[in-house]
Amino acid sequence: MASSYHFSQASLLSFQADRSRNLLNYNSAIQKANCCSILRRECNGLSGSAKVLLPPTRVLSSVSPRIRPVTTASLAGSSQIASSIFTVGTIIVIPFYTLMVFAPHSGLTKRSMESNIPYIVLGALYAYLLFLSWTPETLRSMFASKYWLPELPGITRMFASDLTIASAWLHLLTVDLFAARQVFQDGLKDGIETRHSITLCLLFCPIGIMSHMVTKVIVEQQKLIIEDER
After folding, report:
1. Mind listing the pLDDT tens digit for each residue in 97-128?
2. What crossing angle do the helices spanning 107-114 and 162-190 adopt, rounded to 10°?
């Protein structure tokens, strides 16, 4: 009888344990069903804003794919604008150099060199690129020194942007063309050969200006020698 009693008591305890586990599983299933029901109601009522109920990591993972394409598209658009204006600026100045080098005494060349239209167009394109590339950090990068002087590391960081590079290229094109025009008109006035100096102005403007100064000195010295011989 004792063994039968102990067996029945053990069976009862086992039954109660199984019942407790079943109740816990049932309650857990009920809670999950309630959560799913709430989530569906939030989705239907708020048009997908139920993402706020998700854990933070899931919210970030669901939002990031929407942000990344926008940022990538913005960078791609900026690069395309910079590339297009870079090409347009180059195409604008080439005809003027061609006229000055290959037809320096042509009436068309002289009239073209008197026009200010190319400088206005290049200046407008430069201003547009400057507007697109300007950030609150631009001046801070340019004048990072405690003496408010430009420093090479800051300028290097600025040129990491395609817009900044394109604006610097337009800056060079505009200044180089202006210097080449001055060399061209000075050569016409004094009767000095300028084609070599103008070509250098297109590629290496400071050297082109120096070349014109040296050429001018040589021509003047030759004129003095000829006058002395007479």
Report:
1. 999 999 999 999 999 999 999 999 999 999 99
2. 130
pLDDT tens per residue across span 43-93: 555 444 444 444 444 444 444 444 444 444 456 678 999 999 999 999 999
The CB-side HSE value for 197 (13 A sphere, CA atoms) comes to: 22
Q: Report the length, in residues, of the chain.
A: 230
Please list, in sequence order, all residues whose beta carbon lies within 8 angstroms of the beta carbon of residue 173, skipping any fewer than 6 positions away: 89, 90, 92, 93, 122
Q: How far is CA 94 from the centre of its chain?
A: 25
| Rounded-to-integer distance, Cα 6 and Cα 160, Å | 84
Q: How far apart are CA 21 and CA 3, in angstroms?
A: 27
Q: Sorting pLDDT into bands at 50, 70 and 90, what band is 156?
A: confident
3-state SS class at 227: helix
Q: What 8-state DSSP symbol labels residue 105?
A: T
Cβ atoms of 28 and 36 within 8 Å: the answer is no
At 178-216, the pLDDT tens digits run 999 999 999 999 999 999 999 999 999 999 999 999 999
Token digits of residue 130: 């400057």
Using an 8 Å Cβ cutoff, are 217 and 209 in contact? no
